Amino acid sequence: MGADQPKQFLPLLGQPVLLHTLRRFAEPALQVERIVLVLPADQLATWQRLCAEHAVEIPHTVVAGGASRWASVRKGLAALIDTSEGVVAVHDGVRPLTPFTVIHNTYAKAEAHGAAIAAVVPKDSVRGLSKEGSYALNRSRLRLVQTPQCFELNLLRRAYQLPELPTFTDDASVVEDLHPIQLVEGDYRNLKITTPEDLVLAEALLNAG
């Protein structure tokens, strides 16, 4: 991003990106019982200050994360030690535009099948790399993975008892050796704020309603 602060704290229409994301899961119609926010330990004070500055009243638990995404999700799960069952969603804090329907449908499919993730069809042609150069891939058989990624709670707990491997790129890759992963139609508006251009587009989409 090249910014002077972590991208989850960058202003989006005057409020931190992370606050927009938090609101998506606090939507009353979703009936999310508990929100756990995992942040690097050195960012906890900044988030506390931003919550005071923006009068954030959304109930949530804040947990210090680990050295990797895998370790951070594991710490987030540990905060649910008093919860015995249900469906848990893992979501990127820098996806502040996730539509209600995507969140709801991913939760619902995970409740029915144990594991579900949001994904979209690639818009561009895709090629794989080879020693000779590259080769075409069938775009219709590929999906771009988004979040939320939703799982039956105890299934996700079992998955995170396994050793961390470098091949783990997201929660679905942690779970897939234990359980099939269902796909839910995502949304191209479900941006992951990564570059300055993403922030500009997010502002335009929010302004457009």
Which radius of gyration do the C-alpha atoms yield? 18 Å
- How helical, in percent, are the residues? 25-40%
CATH architecture: Alpha-Beta Complex
CATH topology, by name, is: Spore Coat Polysaccharide Biosynthesis Protein SpsA, Chain A
| Pattern of helices and strands | EEHEHEHEHEEEEHHEH
Side by side, the strands of the main sheet go 5-9-6-10
- Give me the secondary-structure category: alpha/beta
Residue ranges: pLDDT <50 for 5 or more in a row?
none
Enzyme class: transferase
Site (Positions MEP for the nucleophilic attack): 139, 192
Function: Catalyzes the formation of 4-diphosphocytidyl-2-C-methyl-D-erythritol from CTP and 2-C-methyl-D-erythritol 4-phosphate (MEP).
Keywords: Isoprene biosynthesis, Nucleotidyltransferase, Transferase
Describe the structure in your own words.
With about 210 residues, the chain is α/β, with parallel strands linked by helices. It has a single domain (about 5-209), classed as Spore Coat Polysaccharide Biosynthesis Protein SpsA, Chain A (Alpha-Beta Complex), CATH 3.90.550. β7 (about 125-130) and β8 form a beta hairpin. The model has no long low-confidence stretch (mean pLDDT about 95). The chain has helices spanning about 15-25, 45-55, 70-80, 100-115, 155-160, 170-175, 195-209; strands spanning about 10, 15, 35-40, 60-65, 85-90, 115-120, 125-130, 135, 145-150, 180-185. The strands form four sheets. The chain has a four-stranded mixed beta sheet. Strands 1-2 form a two-stranded antiparallel ribbon. Strands 3-4 form a two-stranded parallel sheet. About 35% of the residues lie in helices and about 20% in strands. Keywords: Isoprene biosynthesis, Nucleotidyltransferase, Transferase. One of its GO terms (molecular function) is nucleotidyltransferase activity. Belongs to the IspD/TarI cytidylyltransferase family. IspD subfamily.
